[in-house]
Description:
The chain has no helices and 28 strands. The protein is an all-beta fold. This is DDB1- and CUL4-associated factor 7.
Amino acid sequence: MAGLNVAPKRKEIYKYEAPWTLYSMNWSVRPDKRFRLAIGSFVEEYNNKVQVISLDEDTAEFIAKSTFDHPYPTTKIMWIPDAKGVFPDLLATSGDYLRIWKAGEPETKLECLLNNNKNSDFCAPLTSFDWNEVEPNLIGTSSIDTTCTIWGLETGQVVGRVGGPGSCVSGHVKTQLIAHDKEVYDIAFSRAGGGRDMFASVGADGSVRMFDLRHLEHSTIIYEDPQHRPLLRLAWNRQDPSYLATISMDACEVVILDVRVPCTPVARLSNHRACVNGIAWAPHSSCHICTAGDDHQALIWDIQQMPRAIEDPILAYTAAEGEINQIQWGATQPDWIAICYNRSLEILRV
Length: 350
């Protein structure tokens, strides 16, 4: 009889239903922790949650490995960009402050809280952050107070602490700069020039600005929204540091920019029928990007033919049962994309 020896085919979609509405989410990077993600609740009150979940590949179900309290919703979650698994198993969250956590099952522990408003009761909430891939002891945060802060982390192995050896993480402000005229909504390190020193930010003033940590006395405006609409997100191409993507508030399109040709979009991706909420470049290819939005769609685009117009995506996922507010393309598992809508997380095979 034919077909008896066929191995079970891996599903194309896995779904996890969280106890609360989801907003932030990201893939773990460590090679020994496949199909592990962290997800953050969006509850409009002080008490929120973060959960670490992992796919059991035998039962094809996601399992919650660790759940911990978080003040206010997380605006972003990232795992340490440690593809070799040599650093402690850390994740970071932004909200009222930047927090670094040590992942554990079942207990995830707060390692440090980073606050650069030491002399004030007032805290300026953080809108986003980025963890430098080349130099994992650098994290950049963006805030509603118009500034970006670059933090230096120390992850020392402490021997002889009560309870045996453990990691202890501390951080200090390397630099804080006024990045925009209004709130800063996102920050991302560039891979250009060694990947340590260049970063870009976007904000409520409608501009994309580029900075170099070696020359902070000036910045470069790469793009300004013609209608001066706030720019909410930016993402660098993960293979070609010349390109980045950004989205403006309530816009149904994604703007692709080439830093060598400032102020003129090299492409516009405009098939969404409602506002775009998320952008994620492919980790392994310079010409693929995924966009997702309020029209319940996740679209994958091939931008090879730029600067010729890109009319249509090459792949459309339209089965999401809600407005997609988050999308992440896993660095160590490039054939999987994760999306969030309502209380659901889905990972999609691409």
